[in-house]
Description:
The structure holds two protein chains of two kinds.
Chain A: H1 6-11, H2 33-50, H3 52-55, H4 87-123, H5 125-140, H6 143-154, H7 158-185, H8 188-195, H9 200-236, H10 248-256, H11 266-288, H12 290-295, E1 320-329, E2 334-343, E3 348-352, H13 359-365, E4 374-383, E5 386-387, H14 393-399, E6 404-407, H15 411-414, H16 421-433, H17 437-450, H18 456-461, H19 469-481, E7 487-491, H20 499-516, E8 519-524, H21 527-533, E9 536-541, E10 544-550, H22 551-556, H23 561-569, E11 620-622, E12 626-628, H24 633-639
Parallel strand pairs in A: 3-8, 3-9, 6-7, 7-8
Antiparallel strand pairs in A: 1-2, 1-4, 4-5, 9-10, 10-12, 11-12
Chain B: E1 19-26, H1 32-36, E2 41-48, E3 53-57, H2 64-72, E4 79-84, E5 87-88, H3 94-100, E6 104-107, H4 121-131, H5 136-149, H6 166-178, E7 184-188, H7 196-213, E8 216-221, H8 224-230, E9 233-238, E10 241-247, H9 248-253, H10 258-266, H11 272-285, H12 311-315, E11 321-323, E12 326-328
Parallel strand pairs in B: 3-8, 3-9, 6-7, 7-8
Antiparallel strand pairs in B: 1-2, 1-4, 4-5, 9-10, 11-12
Domain ABC transmembrane type-1 (chain A): 95-284
GO biological process, one term (chain A): peptide transport
GO cellular component, one term (chain A): plasma membrane
Amino acid sequence: MSVLPLDAADDASTQVAPPSSRRRLLPAALRRPGPLLAVGWLLLVVLLSFTAPLWRPYEVNDQDLANRLSLPSGAHWLGTDPLGRDLLSRIFTAGAEPLLAAAVTVAVAFGIGIPLALIAAERGRRVEQVISRCTEMLMALPSTIILLAVIGVIGVRTYVVMAVLGVLISAAVYRIMLGVAQSVRQRLYVDAARVNGLGSLRVNTVHVLPAMATVIAVQAAQLFGIAILINAGLAFLGFGPAEPVPSWGIMIQDASGHVYDAPWLMVPTGVVLALTVVAANVLADALAGKVAHVTAPARSRRPAPVRVADAAPADPAAVLEVRHLTVSVDDGPQLVSDVSFTVAPGRVLGLVGESGCGKTMTARSLLGLLPDGVSVSGGQVLWQGRDLAGLTEKQANGVRGREIAMISQEPMVALDPMFSIAYQLIGPIRRFRGVGRFEARQIAAQLLRQVGIVDADRVLKSHPHQLSGGMAQRVCIALALTGEPQLLIADEPTTALDVTVQAEILSLLRALVRDTGLSVVVVSHDLGVVADICDDVVVMYAGQVVESGRTAPVLDDAAHPYTMALLGANPHVPDGAPMPTRLASIAGTVPAPGSWPTGCRFAGRCQFTQAECTVPFPALPAHGDGTVLCTRVHEVHDAGVSWHAERAGAELPPAAGARHAAEPTPTAGASR
Amino acid sequence: MTVAAPHPAASGVVTVPALEVRDLVVRYGSGRKARNAPPAVDGVSFDIAPGETLGLVGESGSGKSTIGKALLGLQKPSAGTVRVHGQDITGMSLKQRSRQVADLRVVFQDPYSSLNPSRTIGQTLVEPLRLMGIGAAEALRRARAGVESVGLPGDAVDRYPGQFSGGQRQRIAIARALVCEPKVVVLDEPVSALDLSTQAQVLNLLADLRDQRGLSFLFIAHDLGVVRFLSQRAVVLYRGQVMETGPVEAVTQAPRHPYTVALTSAAPVPRPAEQAARRAAREALGMGTAGSAQASATGCPFVPRCPLSTDVCAEQRPPLRLVGDTPTACHHAERVPAL
């Protein structure tokens, strides 16, 4: 499993995955020593317990009176009890009942809890409320007393008693499963199956239950361990098999009477019981941690590699200067290669490209906010004379928020739903500006007015869920302004918003730049947003800068084929111009990090590719002080061609009869 | 509020619409509180002719996705009728629908949650075919042809959704919708979650399929640009009500409702000089955004944001009336071109 973060892992690395890597003998969660030992132990106990009559060295009631309370010996591997009976034989003969009884409890609890949860999740609020009220009553009952009462009525019938325990626990199982089932039912593939006319039973068994399997396994393993303990506890109290039939509870009770004169007696039974319960819990933990363990190798913030001191002095006209920045997965492929750009005071720079092109990684490395397992492996991020790429976590914290702030794509996720807006603003204001609570509140209101919120006092009192998306993004911008930063990094700030709201947020950002001299780096995939707000633009493809310069010349007279293609894919044609019948598009997807070709990384998808494109070449100057990374740029420009739309039907094989015809376009290596 | 008469087909003969929606009302929740709240969809009517694509545009909260759900039977309509090829399916359960009208299918917005990660593409595509009583071998053959028809290799049927990118998954979702050869497909923001270049690929694919198979699409989107690309006609929704409807060129190029003007002027174009001019025009217009104030229950829902609103707008809900070519719900539609 790769640790490629965010967009890189999401989109780009999917086309090369081998088709058969899914089904292994053991799920990944169990292929570590702890869980493996736990599974091994459980299997061993089950096997030995159920086959005990076949292999046990002594019958359970054979008394060896000469060897009472003996320690382990050749004749009695685990020693003997006060009547000289063999412990090994008795422990495993006794094991079958608690294992089976615990299984009964688990089966009954889940057999009731899961169907109820599925029904409640499917039938909606009213049914759910009725079932939930009933389970609440069940949960309010004192289960120990009920168990004892049941035993009083029907006598010591272990399996029935454990089944009753299962009924009592089913209420708790239902509560957990209901939440899971409800969230699974919100997935669109469930809706799609319902639209297809799949019956309720099949929707649940085919689509809902498999998605709940991990949670079910975790809960079942845990409950199994608990049930074994309860079963042993009941036997200990005398509500189990009567002497001379062996049981773990009685054997522990026996041993507790000999703690001083024969302490060993406690060890074999105690260890078997404890190990079995612990093994069940380890298994549950392993299943629960399945996701976390796959993706999280320990955070290793590698010491920044030794850099060759760059002789060139920092550009005096820039607030931020990025030089030859390279970001890599630790011991893995590069995600961003040799990216350079500068941000001048009071200017807005756009980083633009498809998902998987490294624009988010570039933006995050400016703040030292790279995900685990990813780090800056070369180049510099010069901020006011310091190299941010070489800062420690503590030093970076001094810069974040105070000098460089960030707003993200999902304003609702960036705000904590538990706290009021006032609380979330006042904390950073007090920390960054060293003012008292009252003054901080006044500053908070002032910041909200600055981001265009008219009724600041009402918004201060509200919680995030009471705000619309546009309002929440305004609050996030206010939050970013609390430390009076000089640079704001905006990662897709308007992608999640309606166009009308997007227009207002962009106007707000522009007003902030104009009024405060703030510099902004905007990450976006929308060239319309770039045209609206950016002074300079950096077009990225597969981790490289392919074209850069002032926004107007780059967008009005794009030199790189990739920029041309992005412009052609935009359906917003000029006013009065006719809508094309097909849009320009780029076949295939961005190649995954690690499989970037030598030479031009865009060659596999470019309409103008020739042999010369497969050897490396340097970036050329373009658009005044910008660059373009295309070896054929002049030829393409002189020929006056532009990226053309795929001819109608090129997406599809020509006719129904000729479905298996070869791919119509000659784009090398690019799968669609 | 009745809008379009049955749409004349190319031959000039009046045909039964592929999809006919009349006075659709959807309220969420139950009880007195829900009855007093404004409905999510408030008396919406439209037709889609065979082979026609109708764009349904609006901001979030305009009720456009709710209309899609109500058509598909995922949300029970409170009033109104939905007909597919003249057959009333309004009150039918999902199971009845699958037996009697197998020709209404859906493509959802989110390509990540719309495919079951634990089933192969083949299993996902075969499922609806098997429900239609098609044999296993034939169903698999059709599934394979289905993924090939959306530009993916046939062996994709043996793979899991996790092995495909967002754009490829959306193609698979389209293949799933089309594998039953439906007449009408609800496209619920099928390209909103995609990158621009991938969006263009998927839009081209949809245009190809529409032209080759004569499909009718209900294309739900928030971007007037993509609606103009794919649709012949458009319906502009605001707070569950139709503001304007008509040929897509008229609606997007010469809007007659102030809200449509707000939508068109807000969409950014990738040409800096033109965008600067559009921005200046939009800022001069001074239209606010949703949520700034409550509209009155009796008047036009757009009043709090409208630069043209007068007393009559707050008191009387404007009916849809023909302004030029486009039915428009605005008392002052004649003044809109001057904006």
